[in-house]
Amino acid sequence: xxxxxxxxxxxxxxxxxxxxxxxxxxxxxxxxxxxxxxxxxxxxxxxxxxxxxxxxxxxxxxxxxxxxxxxxxxxxxxxxxxxxxxxxxxxxxxxxxxxxxxxxxxxxxxxxxxxxxxxxxxxxxxxxxxxxxxxxxxxxxxxxxxxxxxxxxxxxxxxxxxxxxxxxxxxxxxxxxxxxxxxxxxxxxxxxxxxxxxxxxxxxxxxxxxxxxxxxxxxxxxxxxxxxxxxxxxxxxxxxxxxxxxxxxxxxxxxxxxxxxxxxxxxxxxxxxxxxxxxxxx
Amino acid sequence: xxxxxxxxxxxxxxxxxxxxxxxxxxxxxxxxxxxxxxxxxxxxxxxxxxxxxxxxxxxxxxxxxxxxxxxxxxxxxxxxxxxxxxxxxxxxxxxxxxxxxxxxxxxxxxxxxxxxxxxxxxxxxxxxxxxxxxxxxxxxxxxxxxxxxxxxxxxxxxxxxxxxxxxxxxxxxxxxxxxxxxxxxxxxxxxxxxxxxxxxxxxxxxxxxxxxxxxxxxxxxxxxxxxxxxxxxxxxxxxxxxxxxxxxxxxxxxxxxxxxxxxxxxxxxxxxxxxx
Lengths: 282, 276
Prior knowledge:
Helix content of chain A is 34%, strand content 17%. By secondary structure, chain A is α/β, with parallel strands linked by helices.
């Protein structure tokens, strides 16, 4: 039973962190944890690329929708989506107008909502339902009723988007980061990024014929190699390195939907990016 | 439907962002050195400490509010944000005991500063205190033009999306960070932290009587001196170094009358931490 303590002019509730600044490195080390509790561990996060899948229109979207409808019978899934060409256009106009990074982060989610609503419409016959921030804690209501929650990827940092680590004035945090973080709190079984390339390459395979495929790499090493281009956000790699629930993510080519079936079955398709924080199998 | 490289196209952004992944280093570098507009350049963003002020009750809160109302009457416009304090520490302790993830702790920690903001709103109502929830921030000009004092939580809206740190499960972005980022986004006149110590010390002066006062320091020096504890959240010091607008923050002791007004009038009372 906690007690109220006075005597230094403040009224404290007795706790292990009482009177702490929560800034002390010593305190952070003492309260660190290697792993944390998972909320709904049997869920898969399927992240659909905005530019890579949605912008391709029906020839890429409809096969993905069909395979998700089939896979739903066997797996619990949350489907997230990015913004694609319209997100780039938003940034292009926003930058031209001189909007600060927090302003860009606040508005870019609007075009992801378009893509979410399109996927919800198409998946509605199979239980597709929009899944918004304020209903995060209703996740089990959707999943236990056999629905497919569909959400946007952009994390809700909005005006509070931190100044970017990377060059330029774009938010570091995009849909890849947002969906990863949702999966981290959920304690999801897997995170699968569905793109239009087979996985990670040392350069963009669409522009370079000699691009070399990388089947497995740690996020740390991928950051250190500092390739000019990557199919996933660099901030997602930094976030993965510090995650306590998730150990890896997978990047697959969704233009061949058999890859998605195989990835959910745990087969080794696409590229795996793992956190160097943990030993294999830990 | 006209497509290019298999994709539905938007004309006019070919040169810059189209067809590129946003991770492209070349793209990011091409966007460096752009200047942003200032959203509300004449407004101060002020944080009322949780543990340091709110948990002291009326003895500390009332005189500070009197000073803030005096500033308002003198034509200084500000947004007042709140910290959490001891109840936040209690719920973090409970969350840590249950091995809850960082995102969940951030969610729990978010409730407490909202309580504190509501307390201040009740106290300041007669002077125009009004709750400004993050969803209503686009109405800030309206609140300010009406002569109100917008009051809000210092916590950023990260909640479930708060990242784990390389060391520690307690959310790194709490109310100091939220207040700083709000000031940075607004291109505010300044960011002022009201606490119960004269400013930054080499260690926590409440626990270490040998801690020395630091009136002025740069972010780089503060990181390099390796001190274990400090009066603001560490991420603020990181953000400041890559920020565009808010290149310094000020921390004053609000329990000593006159400090707040002095700081708002441009005096370097307390501690000033600057980016460079």
